[in-house]
Amino acid sequence: MGITSSGRREVRRGGKGMLLGLGWSALMLASAAAWAQQDGATQAAIVKVMRGEVQAQREGKTRPLAVGERLYEGDRVLTAAASSVGFTLRDDTLISLGPNSQFLLEQFVFNEKTDEGNIAVRMVKGTLRYVSGLIGKHAPERQQFSTPTATIGIRGTDFIVEVAGE
């Protein structure tokens, strides 16, 4: 509380504590936006369903995922025991990962006007279900799926893979 030059009492709220709180909030929002934006990169996918602990690794940083979060080319997705995640790529490809899985979205390029693009994914370990979207329907040869022991050209539209851990 303070007294103004006219002699009236004035109540001041906030002060340094409020400024610090606002500054901290702005910093947190900026860091979340930076994670989401990925240096202007185009979004490849969006998380649609999730159960348990699921994380994404991007540029050496690990972060928990949540429904609605975006994935980008180069992202690695990891699921814990009793966990799973489902996400949809921009061409409507559906990918589901089971428990104890490690997945890498190596390449995703998609032109929404022509439905052309490329997809390259790597399953390091765990289980995956893959249902082709527009890229697979228009140019199945432009999809590539890799495991630690094989690289597969995808010609079908729906498959399940299990990769044993090391």
UniProtKB/TrEMBL annotation:
Q: Does the keyword Secreted apply?
A: no
Provide the protein name.
Answer: FecR protein domain-containing protein
What are the alphabetically sorted keywords of the record? Signal
Q: From what superkingdom does this record's organism come? A: Bacteria
Q: Name one Pfam family in it.
A: FecR
Where does the signal peptide begin and end?
1-36
Tell me the ranges covered by the FecR protein domain, including all copies.
Answer: 75-162
Q: In which organism is this protein found?
A: Herbaspirillum seropedicae (strain SmR1)
Among InterPro entries, the record links this protein to: FecR
